[in-house]
Specification:
Blueprint (H helix, E strand, L loop, with lengths): L11 H42 L23 H11 L17 H10 L5 H28 L1 H13 L12 H16 L3 H12 L7 H12 L8 H5 L2 H14 L4 H4 L13 H11 L2 H6 L6 H18 L10 H4 L22 H29 L1 H18 L6 H15 L7 H6 L2 H13 L1 H23 L6
Helix pairs in contact: 1-4, 1-5, 1-21, 2-3, 3-4, 4-5, 4-6, 5-20, 5-21, 6-7, 8-18, 12-17, 14-16, 17-18, 17-20, 18-20, 20-21
């Protein structure tokens, strides 16, 4: 009898292989369980805010008092998806907003679920939530393969609890887009080029930013000198966008109708980046001062300067015993003892153990001081601060973590940010930045290193998520 090439003479190899398979299956099951728990808990917070808290509040100016129904999950862009699902596309080149701006894959899935007898609000909510759960599960598996379990858990938690994860529950495309883009990136990272082209094409049929996958795949193939077949997903990813463009050409006589209609939601600007400058002034000087064009409210800039000054003093007020090579790490409320051999600092090595413990507590206290200042700054500046951090802070973090991330994740993140910043406008930029899965991985890497910072971040995320959920159910603008 002939043995197969991989067959062992003894049963030891079989036992080892069986144990390995069992272990891998166990890790996969644990990942699914963790992602499911994160998804379920965060969605429960949203449901409590939208169905339990918001109906008890009076109608705010410009908003409504929501009712306990599926209607709370439908507002703003949801109405366009409803019109597409029920009546199809409409477009006239008149400078007004038309639903041709919204891509077809999500309405197609909703229509398929509605064929089972469900109304639009229920079907749309179910599709987005299930897709978001799938995105969390797939993201956990991909990050664990490349970075380990700890980073996978923090990354999944970041994506699930980020305030903009609200759009993974209401009738929007975030859940489906995250699922398809993550599947495409993971497939390309594993060199499954056929699958990456398929998932990428579906992503580009979901939202226009999906075309960033095409540029990312081409750049990674070129930089890593991959074989010619690695360039095919770059072309295949565009098939979703191409088919929709062809449809627009046949139906409306304009293959770029979905681009032309975008102008209706993007007001004219005097120069490129005017929106970002406005946002920066709103953070530092206040919205009231920006609207009036002069210093009407002096308290806002005064408080802003005070918070910044306190942050600078807190950063500079290092004790003599703190290691100069780890200033940033010591200011985070997570202290890790230095490994042996002991540090030969001219002051630290002469301190008594009680004094060293005092220095550790000082580092923790300083870290919490930064958190307090951050919350005060958010209370002062509000949404413009969060929007600025999501886009520009996310880009900075992506660049800082570029050596630790997978090349395809870094390249996709940068290409996506380029797509977001290309018009120079800020409307919905923060929500589109949330749809860049690379930013969640970069933050997950950081929080895995500083878990106390991570817990504080998740607590802040939860508070803002509650606020966003209430506002959306009241039909107030969120992102």
């Amino acid at each position: 009898m002939h043995r197969l090439p991989n067959q062992k003479r003894t049963t030891g190899g079989c036992i080892t292989e069986s144990v390995g398979l069992a272990s891998g299956k166990g890790i996969y099951v644990n990942g699914v369980i963790f992602a499911t728990v994160m998804w379920l808990l965060s969605r429960m917070v949203i449901a409590i805010a939208m169905l339990g808290i918001a109906p008890l509040l009076p109608a705010p100016p410009g908003g409504i008092q929501p009712t306990v129904s599926w209607d709370v999950f439908s507002a703003w862009d949801s109405y366009f998806y409803q019109a597409i699902t029920l009546s199809g596309y409409d477009y006239v080149n008149d400078g007004q907003g038309h639903n041709v701006a919204f891509f077809p894959l999500f309405p197609l899935f909703v229509r398929a679920v509605m064929s089972g007898g469900l109304p639009f609000n229920v079907a749309g909510t179910v599709v987005n939530n299930l897709a978001f759960w799938g995105a969390l599960t797939l993201l956990y598996a991909w990050v664990q393969e490349s970075h380990g379990q700890k980073v996978a858990r923090w990354t999944t938690a970041v994506l699930a609890w980020c305030p903009f994860s609200l759009f993974g529950t209401v009738i929007y495309t975030e859940g489906l887009f995250l699922l398809l883009s993550t599947a495409a990136l993971r497939a390309y990272d594993r060199k499954h080029y056929g699958w990456s082209g398929l998932w990428g094409g579906l992503a580009s049929a979901t939202r226009l930013p999906g075309i960033a996958l095409s540029g990312a795949f081409w750049l990674v193939a070129w930089r890593e000198k991959r074989p010619a077949i690695a360039y095919l997903p770059s072309l295949a990813t565009a098939w979703g966008l191409g088919l929709y463009s062809l449809y627009c050409g046949i139906r409306f006589g304009d293959m770029l109708a979905f681009l032309r209609v975008q102008q209706a939601w993007q007001p004219e600007q005097a120069f490129y980046g005017q929106g970002w400058l406005k946002m920066l002034v709103q953070i530092s000087a206040g919205t009231a001062n920006w609207n009036r064009g002069w210093l009407h409210d002096p308290w806002h800039p005064l408080i802003f300067v005070t918070i910044c000054a306190l942050g600078y003093l807190l950063w500079r007020s290092r004790s003599p015993g703190e290691n100069s090579q780890s200033r940033a790490e010591d200011c985070i409320p997570h202290y890790t003892p230095h490994p042996t051999p002991p540090i030969r600092h001219p002051v630290l090595h002469t301190l008594q153990p009680s004094s060293r413990s005092h220095l550790k507590r000082l580092c923790v206290d300083k870290g919490y001081g930064f958190y307090l200042l951050g919350i005060l700054l958010w209370l002062l500046a509000g949404d413009p601060l969060i929007n600025m951090i999501m886009v520009w802070g996310g880009g900075y973090l992506l660049v800082r973590q570029r050596t630790k991330l997978r090349p395809v994740a870094v390249t996709y993140g940068l290409c996506s940010l380029a797509v977001i910043l290309s018009p120079g406008r800020t409307i919905s930029a923060e929500r589109h930045a949330y749809g860049i899965v690379s930013l969640a991985i970069a933050l997950g890497l950081l929080l895995a290193r500083y878990p106390r910072c991570g817990w504080a971040t998740l607590l802040f995320f939860t508070l803002v998520l509650l606020s966003f959920a209430v506002r959306f159910s009241q039909h107030l603008w969120v992102a």
